[in-house]
Amino acid sequence: MTPRNILRCGALLLVAVVMCAASRIGHARYADRWYRMGDDPAQGVAAGPVEDVGGGFTFDSAGATNMNQLHDLQPFNSPVYVSISGSRPVAAATSNNWAIQFDGSDDYLLGPNLGNPSQSIAHTSGGENYAGITDRGYQVWAKPLALPSAGSVVVVDDGEEFEFRMTTTGFWMPETRNIAQTSAIPVTLGAWAHLAQVRPNGDGGGSLSWVNGVAAASQTGDYNQGATTGLVVGANAAPDGLGGTAVPPDAGSHFNGLIDEVELFVLGGSYGTFSYTSDNGYFTDVFLPSKSATYSYVDVIGPRGGPDGHNDKAWVVGDINFNGAKDQADVNAFVAGWRSTNAGSYPGSGLRIGDYVTLGKGDLDLDGDTDIDDFVRLRASFAGVAVVMPTAEQLAGAVPEPSGAILAALATAAVVVRTRRTKRGG
Ligand SMILES: [Ca+2]
Ligand SMILES: [Ca+2]
Ligand SMILES: [Ca+2]
Ligand SMILES: [Ca+2]
């Protein structure tokens, strides 16, 4: 037993029992890794070089000891633990007190990739059953302190399949395989940014990225199957030609700033379907609590049973104005947002994606626009709720073309519904 496992064994026994009792039902995202960058209860961190404390590695907090579920990261060239208790990414997440700072010169962390979960170390070592599971994603907080002087630098690179970069000109840049997309979202130095990149639904579901909860890029989602290049945090990952990871990473690829709460997760199959409103940590942890006390941050449970570093509060389906309730204001917001779109606001050739901005305009299916599909969802989510719903004719009148024919058909359906209700009521 390693020193790390001895440290953790007692503390996690209870957690493991709770985990067994807890159901995964209701959650989609299931964390395969959770790098808290010093906040694992068994880590024993002090400010200073990562290699000097807690056994020398930084701990994976997703899983139990001696189960082949924990895949720690090895530090190279002395990235350091720094206290963030005065400037947390999520102020209300008070169990988060440490992050790791990278010097932008040669610091990085290295561990096994998640890649395709069915080929990952957790599955092949028997730690998890990811048979048939190919969907995945990650989210991370990054606080850049300086832009690169040339090229672009990397916050996280999972096996050279999925990565997030930052450009010399100060824009976030998601990359899938070797295709990078420069987003329109600027980097703010000295501020925490939430980065998320998700492959939610097979090759056809794309590789989708958000920065601070806002759509950043949409790319195609197929893999290089069987990638053995590692997970690198703070620099670029590349194959070494021998089945491993090139070390040191590219000299110009090192991130200058803080990185925290790196979560790599699996999706699909028994884990459920990705949902932006429950699986994007910026939306659940920062955006929703900022809108209503109904959504204020509480974290006592997660997909593995215990706290997971994310708000337990769920968005009320149909709450378009985010006030915590379904009411007439949501319907009015839908009408005001009718036919709006975020087309052209982000790069890439993948599926159209939405975010809290489009959702706030009625984009209930989160494909970036507010159209007839969203109206169908609006009506469904407000069934039995006392509101005045627009008629399809009114929506059609808002923008007569090009949706007139579809709306005319819906208007007929709406009349039928009203008639039936009248009869049943009588
Ligand atoms: Ca942390
Ligand atoms: Ca939680
Ligand atoms: Ca509302
Ligand atoms: Ca939509």
Quick overview of this protein structure:
By secondary structure, this protein is α+β, with helices and mostly antiparallel strands. The chain has helices at 3-21, 121-124, 276-279, 281-291, 328-337, 356-359, 372-381, 392-398, 404-425, and strands at residues 30-35, 48-49, 74-76, 80-83, 98-103, 108-111, 135-144, 152-158, 162-167, 172-176, 179-180, 193-199, 207-211, 214-219, 231-233, 256-267. The protein contains nine helices and 16 strands.
Account of the protein in words:
By secondary structure, this protein is an alpha+beta fold. The protein has two domains: 3-295, Sandwich (Jelly Rolls); 328-423, no CATH class. Helix content is 21%, strand content 21%. The protein has helices at 3-21, 121-124, 276-279, 281-291, 328-337, 356-359, 372-381, 392-398, 404-425; strands at 30-35, 48-49, 74-76, 80-83, 98-103, 108-111, 135-144, 152-158, 162-167, 172-176, 179-180, 193-199, 207-211, 214-219, 231-233, 256-267. The strands form two sheets. Strands 1, 2, 4, 5, 7, 12, 13, 14 and 16 form a nine-stranded antiparallel β-sheet that branches. Strands 3-6-15-8-9-10-11 form a seven-stranded antiparallel β-sheet, with no helix packed on it. The longest helix has 22 residues, at 404-425. The protein is globular. 50% of the residues are buried.
